[in-house]
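Quick start: read one record
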Amino acid sequence: MLYLDGTQAELSLREVFAQAGRIRRLVGELPTVEFALLRLLLAVCHDALDGPADVDEWADLWDDEHCFAPLAGYLDSRRTRFDLLHPLQPFMQVAGLRTAKDEVFSLNRIVADVPNGEPFFSSRQPSVQRLPFAEAARWLIHTHAYDTSGIKTGVTGDDRAKGGKVYPLGVGWAGTLGGVFAEGDTLRQTLLLNLIADDAGGGGNDHDRPAWRHDPCGPSAVTGRRPGGVRDLYTWQSRRVRLHFDADGVHGVVLGYGDPLPPYNQHRLEPMTAWRRSAAQEKKRGEAVVYLPREHDPSRAAWRGLAALIVDRVVPGQGAEAAPVLRPGVLEWVARLVTEGVLPRGFLIRARVVGAVYGTQQSVIDEVVDDHVAMALVLLHRQDRDYAVQAIDAVSDAEKAVLALGDLASDLARAAGSEAESMKATAQDRGFGALDHAYRTWLQHLAAADDPFDQRRLWQQQAHRTIRTLGEELLRSAGEAACEGRLITTKAGTEWLNAALAETWFRARLNKALSHPFTSPEPSGEADSVPASLPKVSA
């Protein structure tokens, strides 16, 4: 855990809830560990508090600094089910899980920060020999959430095993998601912001129970079982695991497949991801509407996908066409809180995005995504949409301006007789990098503005200056061949393309992309000045 004063500590579950108001955030070996642990804590909260049932109950929790006090008694009453080493019902494991040959495997199978086949890029080289019990518990929770797919050794009693092997059944449930959660200033705020009321999709029915209130799992899958709600889903047993240990820690593991869960059309149940409509799956499955989790693109900063986080949901079956993208349920819930006046419009949250990117038939984790977008809750307000619209359109401004920069790089390369696509991609990367901090800061302060349309114009001016400066740098470094130019073939015929013509095209494209943001000439000597409400970004 990371405290507000910057210190770190390893805490028990009881201590986490008792000190949640002093803790800044969870800290794990990987961001995906943090996401998996948060979901576990939310399952404990929902079950211990038996709710919240509605917005009013949630508001009472928000106002009560000691709202997590009941969790100590809850954890005490279920102490044996949270015992990592219990001989009959160990926490999130299967007692006596074994293979036909009684093999015990390396902890590399559950420790995800050991690069597959690249041990020298990890401090745990060449393998993980032993883990302390607390760290082993974190990786156990992470395994259920993010374990890779691939062929696994069959365990005794699993009827899916063929020739001692179980063939790929997919990654852990959280691994299918583009994880999203609302982060506050403290862990207490973060837990409450993501604690969705039962009447808003938070579960709460008789079948919605976390893993420790189900009967202990056996080695095989529970046929046909589906999550009863978020308590069940957040602790879904996607794997069968048994840790091997001695007095000094955990030294081995047995790992097999658990309960599979298909990702399609779980949008009414899973709140911690955006969703995308899949035409391909609709055709394949013969269903009118199919939604799949919207995974994160590690090459794309979170702010560029802002629309998927803040655009209102359109619910199929209510006389409207199903939306191509659904924002995450946790942000839908926060939108309700601000719309109903429970939280103020200017309250600032961070929309954290966390996810794993798998490679080679999902048998390895190639990358881990961790980013955030800080924004005021007015962007989620269901009735006042002006701020959200301007924020989304400002992203579009940036995209178009960067495209103009990429076209300039491409034109200069063509004028010099060079390869154009790589030059274009490099210029666009520079453009987005130059706008990244500026947009995040602009968005963070958008709610304080009286007129979001004026703020949009300020953003267009900032983007224009930044991209124009990068364009001028490209022109200065174009070289003699580009300045002289060459004859190229276009749709309209042939044309002599040189740096001068490329510059003319660039300025026209940039002005069009940003709606000619300067309505009057800039004062002499002020061409690179920046309005006080926006940050100066150096190219």
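Residues 520-539 have pLDDT under 50 and may be disordered.
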